[in-house]
Give the backbone structure.
Amino acid sequence: MLFSCLSLLAALGAPAGLIAQEIQLRDVNVQMRRPGEDPVRVFQSITIGSQRTTVAAGTSLDEPLRRRGIHPDAEAYAALYQLNPSLRNARPDTGVDLLLPVLEGPELGRLVATGYQAYLTPDFGLKQRIAGRIQGVPGLERALAELSRERFGGAAQKLEMLATVSEIREMAVAAGLVIQGRTRPLSHELLSEIDGELAVTEAVVTGLAGPDKKVLTEADRDALRAVAEQAALRKGYWLERQGPDANQLMDPPPTVTVEVYTCAPTRGLAAPNARPDTTPCRGAAIAPGLRVYYRDVAGYGRLPPNPFAEPSPAHEALDVGNFFLWATQPNDSTVATEVVKVKVRSEIQPQRVVLILRDHD
């Protein structure tokens, strides 16, 4: 199994006197071990709590983790970032109140007291599923190569799709090595996107290679291209850079704040006055209260959409990538606005998106 050496996820510790338990983390596996030794105890897929404490400006978060019996590697930082979405680096510039994971129970406490550390792996089940998908990608490549060129629409089209799936495999292996090596913190959102992209790749290729002998459709071709493009956008995150442009390995994946406004149709609006109109809806009425959804381009129409936490106008931190955004009325799944393709890039912060209500007149 690709992640046979993955550490099992953890619970984090807090000394007495902190504020009462707050947010919980689920599907956390914990290995209790000393550095360089085999684990003495594994706690599988447990739920752990959190407690709030103040961290001074410039303090490395390694120390608060160590004091709570937690080994401060990338997986521990992934748990920290999940508990504190606004935290963007491992050494805050200003004093902050943070939620820290908590190791609970007498057995965990006894092990920490005798010198063992908790090695955490958040989203363990999701990572295991990704591991299985990664293992299957070489087989998908072989199955694709064995198909006749007529199934792709010609020899050139077959070569293009083989190259596309090869790019997807390279991304999958790079992500798998990062997870297995515990070298970068990965958010639940990023892991879910990778899982979905590999699921789309599986579905397209197995559909082609299956007994029905399907022909590659333009929609299938576009889906594989979209997965490969997402992979290319993330390529730099899997690599460690040295020198003046060195990346900070414990920092979270890059995200962009996307602001979404839902607006009434603009048909028939009067021309604005001499003063430039800088409002989001450009003179039209804001239509608040709609539910905003997004999905990466590869998964759009194939996988369930992701909702924004709040109704419009709303903002959400999205990973760098290509997404479709749209909105529905609060109690209706019917798409109520135009569907907009958005290229989310870290150079634009925040990134504003306007969704226009469909005009049914």
